[in-house]
Write a structure and sequence with these properties.
Blueprint lengths: L1 H17 L8 E4 L10 H19 L4 E6 L6 E7 L5 H18 L6 E4 L3 E6 L12 E3 L10 H21 L5 E7 L11 E6 L5 H15 L9 E4 L3 E6 L10 E4 L26 H4 L1 E2 L2 E2 L4 H13 L8 E3 L22 H9 L4 H7 L8 E4 L3 E7 L5 E7 L7 H12 L9 E5 L6 E5 L6 H5 L10 H21 L3 E3 L8 E3 L5 E3 L6 E3 L6 E2 L12 H6 L1 E2 L1 H17 L14 H11 L8 H6 L4 H14 L10 H9 L33
Parallel strand pairs: 7-11
Antiparallel strand pairs: 1-4, 2-3, 3-5, 4-5, 6-14, 7-8, 8-10, 9-10, 12-13, 15-16, 16-17, 17-19, 18-19, 20-23, 21-22, 24-25
Amino acid sequence: MAHHLMTLAAIVAAVVLLLPCATGYPWAFCGENNNFKANSSYQSHLSLVAATLPKNASTSPDLFATAVVGTIPRQLWAMGLCRGDVDGTACFNCLTQAFRDLPNHCSYNKDATMYYDPCMLHYSNNQLIPDDDSGDFYTINSTAAVNSDPVGFNRLVAALVNATADYAAHKSTRRFATGETTAGSVSEEFPKLYSLAQCTPDMKAARCRECLAALISQSLDAFQNLTLGRVLWINCTYRYEAAPFFNGPAMVQIAVPSSSVPVPAPAPTLAPAIQPSYGTPAAVAGVAGGRKYNLPGVVVAVVLTTVTALNLVVCLCFWRRRRRRRGPTAQAKQPYPTYSVEAEDTEMVDSMMIDVATLRAATGDFDESNKLGEGGFGAVYKGVLPDGDEIAVKRLWQCSTQGLDELKNELALVAKLKHKNLVRLVGICLEQQERLLVYEFLPNRSLDLILFDAEKREQLSWEQRYRIINGIARGLQYLHEDSQLRVVHRDLKASNVLLDANMNPKISDFGLARIFGRDQTQAVTDRVVGTHGYMAPEYMMRGNYSTKSDAFSFGVMVMEIITGRKNGCCNSGMSDDLLTTVWEHWDAGTAMETVDPFMAAAGIFSEVDVLRCIHVGLLCVQPDPAARPVMSSVLVMLGCDTITLQAPSKPMLFLPRNTAGNTTLSTVSLQG
């Protein structure tokens, strides 16, 4: 048996060394049979994203950005992620270089990925659904083996990478962590180790840990007794080495044993096998996207051990894992499925239940001193949970006619929306005739409380205002284009945009939101509800709403953020509303006269950038919904000053509907 294994190992070792190796750093991987033509719209989309995504990622606190340009079937989806320990300049330079290099490596490929040490770039014509089809490639880097106490060394590696993965998933909002082994019996036979783990920041903590657990559980066998290992996937990655490779101090430390006693491994939450949504690394499990390979995991482990024992170095060989193609049987995974409440949705809602006694205690029994605001659906109170977490509790009026099943349906929808620019739903309570929605509390409350206050808005510099505009656009892009559900908010306004401690915006209040099917472009309602000054003319006058009506509301907010004035669309004979004022100055070439004078006092700003934002805002409030840009295009236009924008048309003046049965309603904000 031993002779048979050695013979098999020798044969496969030869095969491994003959495998096509990567041409060298950086590592580029190209899709197959999916090309675009020169000078096509897809190439134009790629150029647009190349001009904006590096800046968006490098200025993001998470060093992460996505972009969607165009419409299916010529849509381009791109993602850039930088390592959490690099600075913004290094991130920008890396992603800029990636956009230069990748099209050369993958000429006219619609699906391509480039891995550098500091960053990763991926683009495709098939938008990746979050947490689905996340992996692309699996790599093995091997060096000399540890000859002393290999069992203890392998346990130490497992402890280190799992502790680093735990920290990245559960203790870092950026989903990034570094680790190292601390002083002990460190020698050439038992070297000090350094580690790194990272997920895309838009992943939930549990999903990030599941992704990393899947990688670790299926790759550590291939790294047995090796002092260096790395796995690169699109949504998550981990790495360890015997030499320092990251910047700054380690976030996690694991003690090295003082003797050769084996290190007890932790009890990580390792998946028994790669989850279906991630596929299977070919080098380990032998299957990739339905295609079978001839390198079972146990054989690869034997090969690597044999090769390293002979002091041979395997040359960064890559086993490609084909991403599963969505065929007719995979329609449920389409980006914008028709939503229906399933049993798992009800279970999800049930798992978020908080008892009413806890919320009464948290809010001082809904004391008036804790009230943050109220409106058409109920009041909002600040609360503090027993663990010290601050919350905002929306208490729906008891006279509401909304049934329990309908409310659970709405909650299931909100619970599915996860984005850094959306307010997070913490829990719910449906006891004692109470209907309570519990959200994260944001200390700077709502945008309107700062923007329309003559004293408070002095703190809003242009940099902060631009970040708020950009963040709102990103949240809307997620709702309209990137989430599993296609959502129209219908009540976007300054009081429904909340600000965290760093003045980052989060869209709130989905009480009026509606779900659209994948192919649905608009809907009509007989009951127009919303807020004057933000409603698009086609919605106010005819009840038509769509993502373009949200774009109109966004355009109004852009004008408000830049001018510091609230849009009172019909208050003064319909001649001096904010949109008309800005338009008239724009048409006369004096748009800078509309800028909030407090903005100049708060810091230096670029007139070019301000004028571009005004231009984009005017494009969003055009009377024709078809002429308004989609949010992915808005982000491209905001982030690139080399793109020529079309001339906007004059905004429409209109009266609100006042017909019986068609009334408007000012709705309550979470914290305003």
